[in-house]
Design a protein that fits this description.
The complex is a heterodimer. By secondary structure, chain A is mostly beta strands. Chain A is built from no helices and 11 strands. By secondary structure, chain B is mainly β. Chain B has one domain: Immunoglobulins (Immunoglobulin-like), CATH 2.60.40. Chain B starts with a strand and ends with a strand. The chains are: A mainly beta, B mainly beta. At the A-B interface, strand 4, strand 5 and strand 9 of A face strand 11 of B.
Chain lengths: 116, 113
């Protein structure tokens, strides 16, 4: 089956630093990837849609300068949390759309970010 | 607008009991997909089932069964003879607009031995 891998699985960083999270489709190509955020004991909320070769589309209320998304290839999208603050601590999860069918999306295992 | 409601925040049962997790959705789309995912403490989303809006057949997979009723906009999930390993947060989700997912708030299931 299709596999989506996120790296790192967890990360701790200091306030003010930036951290990059990678989302890779391991055995398929994905023109579109999605980034979700999950606060503790809450649901997953869509942050942005990442499109290969073009700018990401952000959901309302999500700061694009804060959460930089780059989709440089058909198998890799990155989310960079810039100038991280403790309130950015969250679980971030991506999903990748299977290019062939464009009807199935697969989720990564998630990245737990803690900003201290 | 899309909306998924999981009214049960947390459910506790004793092992071997049956349990039903409720899911009610709203959408104006005529074609849509509904999903159930399991999220164990490790955090990853485990796919359980996908159902499209044109298929109202109920489905059974081992101890899991799903009841999809368009008339009531519900897609309920039943675990028969629950086990401790079933303890997790379960999300119902609606897929819309080119594969975006709208997730319900989740139901935490605690299965006690």
């Amino acid at each position: 089956g299709a596999v989506v891998s996120q790296h790192p699985s967890w990360v701790i960083c200091k306030s003010g630093t930036s951290v990059k999270i990678e989302c890779r489709s391991l055995d398929f190509q994905a023109t579109t990837m999605f980034w979700y955020r999950q606060f503790p004991k809450q649901s997953l909320m869509l942050m942005a849609t990442s499109n290969e070769g073009s700018k990401a589309t952000y959901e309302q209320g999500v700061e694009k300068d804060k959460f930089l998304i780059n989709h440089a290839s058909l198998t890799l999208s990155t989310l960079t949390v810039t100038s991280a603050h403790p309130e950015d601590s969250s679980f971030y999860i991506c999903s990748a759309l299977l290019i062939i069918s464009n009807t199935e999306a697969f989720f990564g295992q998630g990245t737990r970010l803690t900003v201290v | 607008a899309q909306k998924v409601t999981q009214a049960q925040t947390e459910i506790s049962v004793v092992e071997k009991e049956d349990v039903t997790l409720d899911c009610v959705y709203e959408t104006r789309d005529t074609t849509y997909y509904l999903f159930w995912y399991k999220q164990p403490p490790s955090g990853e989303l485990v796919f359980l089932i996908r159902r499209n809006s044109f298929d109202e057949q109920n489905e059974i997979s081992g101890r899991y069964s799903w009841n999809f009723q368009k008339s009531t906009s519900s897609f309920n999930f039943t675990i028969t003879a629950s086990q401790v390993v079933d303890s997790a947060v379960y999300f119902c989700a609606l897929r819309y607009n080119f594969n975006k997912f709208y997730f319900g708030s989740g139901t935490k299931l605690n299965v006690k031995p």
